[in-house]
Amino acid sequence: MLYVLIIGFIILAIFRMPVAISLGFATILAIWFFSDISLAAVPHKMVNGIDSYVFLAIPLFLLAGKLMNAGGITDRIFNFARVLVGGIKGGLAHANVMASIIFAWMSGSAVAAVGGLGEIELKAMKENGFRNISTSNRPINHPSDLAGLKIRTPENPAQIQTIKALGGIPTPLSFSELYTALIQGVVDGQENPLQNIWFGRLYESQKFIAKTHHIYNSVYITASKRLWDSLEKEDRELILYCVEQSSKWQLEYMKKLDIELEEKMKNEGVTFTYPDPEEFAQASESAYEEMYKILGENARRIVQAIRNID
């Protein structure tokens, strides 16, 4: 796919299209060439961060960064890049920022260099909830209960390796395909925070939900360092204060929401089980080892430091 991406970019560049536009069109062509979706549907999937395509951002922005820095044109498209990162919740910008934050954390820095787009700072975190496992055919009380079950996961190695370690059969699918896959029995279950299960109406085809809390999801609030530094001190302090206060409110809200949604789904006929979290934690240890192979030994040190916190 990368070859098609590069060739498409070169062809567009020959016609002197702006770099950012050329890269965008090249990515659209690459996705269309290697997928079964219509050309018109590709931009929608990119913007909404569909799992199957989101990781195209990594080679795309690495290439963009080299071209921009080599050509001295970073400043010319900075405004476009700032809008892209700030205005799109998913898709290319989301993948690029998230990958950069991960790399920054692995190196012990709170500032991530993002291709030719400048630096991105992590300002705060919000909660997206603990992930739980739902199934259509049997309740889950122990990791062994997952044996032989096809469990939908995002196309994310952490979730894939976790379900595999617990004994299930990880089946990566985009969220947009999940409801239909559950109804048709393509997969036996899935794993998500309760709010996703409720608002996605996934409970309609799932008789059981196990509150495994096997993965915790956070939402990251980031800012362009260049834009942040250009703000007045009073504005920065006000933004941070608002972010801090909203984060505290949201944490309390999520606690109450989980309780409310559990009761609502029980009223819809869903049976909840409450497995021993320690049993699932021990069973998932091999997933950590697989992720260390991807992220390196510094990831192991970070995980160990977190575990050592009282």
Architecture overview:
With 310 residues, this protein is of the alpha/beta class. The chain has 2 domains: 2-117, no CATH class; 126-307, 3-Layer(aba) Sandwich (D-Maltodextrin-Binding Protein, domain 2), CATH 3.40.190.170. Helix content is 56%, strand content 17%. The protein has 15 helices and 7 strands. Strands 1, 2, 3, 4, 5, 6 and 7 form a 7-stranded mixed β-sheet that branches. A hairpin with a 5-residue loop joins strand 1 (111-113) and strand 2. Helix 14 packs across helix 15. 29% of the residues are buried.
SSE order in H/E notation?
Answer: HHHHHHHEEEHEHEHEHHEHHH
Largest sheet, if any?
7 strands, mixed
Oligomer: single chain
Number of strands: 7
Low-confidence stretches: 44-109
Which structural class best describes the helix and strand composition?
A: alpha/beta
DSSP helix fraction: 55-70%
Kindly state the mean pLDDT as a whole number?
A: 74
Q: How many structural domains in the coordinates? A: 2
State the end-to-end distance. Answer: 46 Å
**What is the CATH level 1 assignment of the largest domain?**
Alpha Beta
* CATH fold assignment of the largest domain: D-Maltodextrin-Binding Protein, domain 2
Tell me the name of the CATH homologous superfamily of the largest domain. Answer: Bacterial extracellular solute-binding protein, family 7
- CATH level-two architecture of the largest domain: 3-Layer(aba) Sandwich
Estimated share of beta-strand residues:
15-25%
